[in-house]
Design goal:
heterodimer; A: about 375 residues; alpha/beta; 6-stranded mixed beta sheet; 11 helices; elongated; B: about 325 residues; mainly alpha; about 70% helix; globular; ATP binding (chain A); P-loop_NTPase (chain A); AAA+_ATPase (chain A); ABC_transporter-like_ATP-bd (chain A)
Chain lengths: ~375, ~325
């Protein structure tokens, strides 16, 4: 009578025991349709429609963008003001309890009591998910091993490092072998190597365990490395939903800074004019959020390909300016919002925003302030 | 665009999946992931699991050795007077126990209060303080299940604490060849009284503890809620009694948890009250006592439900 995971079901012959699940849902683990959540003062989600396929999906947004609210609704813990949402083919308003049996959740904040061991705690959580006592113990041992906790799992959690605690949190979300896990900011508070390990684990969760993942972060960079698909929301609205490939294929942008010379007292302006004449899209640092002291002297150039680098070099040389720096842009998620915000009115979904940032590979740790 | 479905390995044997090159995860042993195909027992089972975990926790079972000390000690202290009374009764061949079944818990209210103050915060403040609540609510159980399990576990723990000495008394009484019917009736009345007491104290203790994530505050607050009203009520009853106003003294008992139970048991359950001069409330007043007791229990339950409506993710 127990269903197997959805994606194993051949789309032709649906043998699932889940009432009402049709083959339509085999290709999506989460579907929301114009999902809204309004509180008296704020709108947390604003007509959000998104389809999420099996795999690792990143949910990106600044703090307060509505990520947690969305997870709450998807777990069937908060009613939506309007719209509908289905998780694993089940309606969140009607089948919350069934959904929560098949879904794992790893909260963003600390949630572990310090006075029990990881084993005891995870066994308890497994039983709370409905696993019989023996199975709960076996699955706990397996899961803790898979997340990389060995002897220390018999010691009280209070003595664990942040990285170990995060692993316990992940283990309790996986212990009942869910079909889908929600990981809320799993890399929060980890050092760079801890981050890498956690991201590696998240990839394994899907690739080796066959469990779909919805992972939230405010760091687009790290999600680009981990996810198959990225959904960006801001202010409860969908900004982008596209595969990571599309994200990274988008042209990169270069930050260029030049010196002023006697011939060109405003070197930046001169370069800008020259580059614009050469047909390259150039922008200056959009004020406000930039904290760099030299931001007024920075030009952002759309890099269409290798030739743009040459063009910039040649133009700078031609003008006789000194090239202070030319680097691939470290993008900040706020820019995706800014860009997409502008584009949102016209095209709400995938078509890449005009100046979408390029993934940086240096740890991806570009926090939104 | 969407990734290809992975075929999960259901084989128990270590599988040879190529994960050696997993980024950042290279140190993790590659023993294949096994899916769980066994039964999932659902909400009712989860509720029972939470109940038994909380009940065991209330006696320190499944917790550190240190946390077993106080509950076990209080349990022993609770039973000791009963054992002594029984010993004396058997030895002196007394025809009657020195203390009635239903009044026993009232005499030892301080011990029960201490037990509640130490264990109620342990049961609920911990989950609030360490923010484990979202882990429960992201599982099949609903908020109501959590409250029901915690309430039932605390009441059951108190029931065990208050029933054990009654059983000691009963066994002793039968050993001393006291009248079987009399003693059985007394025990039954005593059990009803401790059921009420357990529910009432569990409710009050949990509501007070759930208000604060700080365990220390919880302990202090529970003690305060139990002792301050009792002290005030006793003092006022004493004054009323000295002034000859026994009716007022009878009604005053409504205002503290333990005197509520005392009023109920002395009216309906054949006990003698600990009020000044052992005055018992009239039958009418007794009904008011019972009604107030039951509504306080229901009120505490409702308050707990409300508390956890807000303590979500």
């Amino acid at each position: 009578m127990y269903y197997r995971r959805g994606r194993e079901i051949p789309s032709s012959g649906v043998t699932t025991g889940v009432a009402g699940a049709t083959s339509v849902y085999v290709v999506t683990v989460i579907v929301t349709e114009s999902l809204s959540k309004r509180f008296p003062r704020v709108t947390a989600l604003d007509r959000l429609s998104v389809d999420i396929a099996p795999g690792v999906t990143g949910l990106v947004g600044a703090n307060g963008a509505g990520k947690s609210t969305l997870i709450k609704i998807l777990l069937g813990l908060a009613p939506a003001t309007e719209g509908s949402a289905h998780v694993l083919g089940l309606d969140v308003t009607k089948d919350g309890s069934t959904i929560r049996e098949r879904v794992g959740y790893m909260p963003e904040h600390d949630c572990l009591p310090p006075d029990v061991s990881a084993t005891e705690f995870v066994v308890h959580m497994a039983r709370m998910s409905g696993l019989p006592p023996t199975a709960a113990r076996e699955r706990t041992a397996d899961t803790l091993r898979h997340v990389g906790l060995y002897e220390e799992r018999y010691r009280p959690i209070g003595g664990y490092s942040t990285g170990m605690k995060q692993r316990v949190k992940l283990a309790q979300a996986l212990v009942h072998d869910p079909q889908l896990v929600f990981l809320d900011e799993p890399t929060n508070g980890l050092d760079p190597s801890g981050r890498d390990e956690m991201l590696g684990l998240i990839q394994r969760v899907h690739r080796d365990f066959g469990i779909s993942v919805l992972v939230t972060s405010h760091l687009l960079g790290e999600l680009e490395r981990t996810c198959d698909h990225v959904v960006v929301i801001d202010g409860g609205k969908l900004l982008r939903s596209s595969s990571t490939d599309e994200f990274t294929q988008v042209t990169a942008s270069l930050a260029v800074e030049v010196t002023d010379t006697d011939a060109h007292p405003d070197g930046t302006g001169a370069l800008r004019t020259a580059l614009a004449a050469a047909g390259v899209a150039v922008t200056t640092a959009a004020g406000g959020s930039e904290s760099l002291a030299s931001s007024g002297h920075l030009l952002y150039v759309e890099a269409a390909g290798e030739e743009t680098y040459d063009l910039v070099r040649d133009t700078v040389a031609g003008l006789g300016l000194g090239l202070v720096r030319m680097e691939q842009r470290r993008h900040q998620i706020a820019e995706v919002f800014r860009d997409a915000d502008a584009a949102a009115q016209a095209i709400p979904a995938p078509a890449g925003a005009p100046r979408s940032p390029h993934a940086t590979q240096d740890g991806g740790a570009h926090d939104v302030a | 665009m969407s990734p290809e479905p992975t075929t999960p390995q259901t084989a128990a044997a270590p599988s040879a999946t190529a994960v050696a090159g997993a980024p950042g995860g290279a140190h993790i042993h590659n023993i294949g992931y096994r899916h769980y195909d066994g039964p999932r027992l659902g909400r009712a089972y989860a509720r029972r699991s939470l109940f038994s975990q909380s009940l065991r926790g209330a006696y320190g079972l499944g917790r550190s050795a240190k946390s077993k000390v106080l509950p076990m000690l209080l349990f022993a202290v609770m039973c000791l007077p009963a054992a002594i009374m029984v010993a004396v009764a058997v030895f002196t061949k007394a025809g009657k126990l020195p203390v009635g079944y239903s009044g026993y818990a009232i005499y030892l209210q301080a011990v029960i209060g201490l037990y509640l103050a130490s264990q109620a915060p342990q049961s609920v403040s911990r989950d609030l303080r360490f923010r484990s609540i979202p882990l429960y609510f992201s599982r099949p159980i609903e908020r109501g299940d959590y409250v029901a399990s915690k309430f039932a576990a605390m009441a059951a723990a108190l029931f065990a604490l208050t029933t054990a000495p009654l059983l000691v008394l009963y066994a002793g009484a039968l050993l001393a060849k006291m009248d079987f019917l009399d003693q059985t009736k007394g025990l039954a009345q005593g059990l009803v009284s401790v059921v009420l007491l357990s529910l009432l104290f569990a409710g009050i203790g949990l509501v007070v503890s759930a208000a604060t994530p700080r365990r220390g505050f919880g302990v202090a607050a529970v003690i305060a809620v139990l002792t301050i009203p009792y002290g005030a009520v006793s003092a006022l009853q004493g004054i009323a009694h000295v002034q000859g106003n026994d009716a007022a003294a009878g009604w005053l008992g409504l205002f503290s948890p333990i005197t509520l139970i005392d009023g109920v048991q002395s009216t309906f359950l054949g006990g003698t009250s600990s009020f000044p001069d052992s005055i018992a409330p009239s039958t009418g007043a007794g009904f008011v006592y019972l009604l107030v007791t039951l509504s306080v229990i229901a009120g505490c339950y409702a308050l707990l439900l409300r508390r956890y409506r807000k303590a979500g993710l």
